Amino acid sequence: MKKLNLKQLDFNIGTGLIPAIIQDVKSKDILMLGFMNKEALKETLKIGKVTFWSRKRQCLWTKGKNSGNFLEVIDIKTDCDDDTLLITARPNGPICHTGNYSCFDDINDD
Predict the structure, then answer these.
(1) Which domains does the chain have, with CATH numbers?
(2) Is the entire prediction scored with pTM above 0.85?
(3) CB proximity list for 21: less than 8 A, separation 6 or greater
(4) Three-class SS state of 45
(5) What is the pLDDT of residues 89-100, one digit of tens each?
(6) What single DSSP character describes residue 14?
């Protein structure tokens, strides 16, 4: 993983959006996957809380704005192709809208 270089990020490959993988700084668990455009990334850097572009609502969405379960940014890195972000964050409560710690909790439970 490389340190974040805004000028090298390739937002064109995904119609203006790039995937952002969110990882818990303490446990190293993957918490969720969201999408960012340039504006969302700039807002994330500005306020220190993970902000996505909501594909459903077509607007910026800071995770936790309604629930209080913010994701405090610790570090942001890019992959080798500069088209995916890995954001290490400190979660402030459950991350999934279901109330689970992670959006990947209980996926394979019967």
Answers:
(1) 2-7+14-91 (3.10.20.810)
(2) yes
(3) 30, 33, 84, 85, 86, 87
(4) helix
(5) 999 999 998 889
(6) T
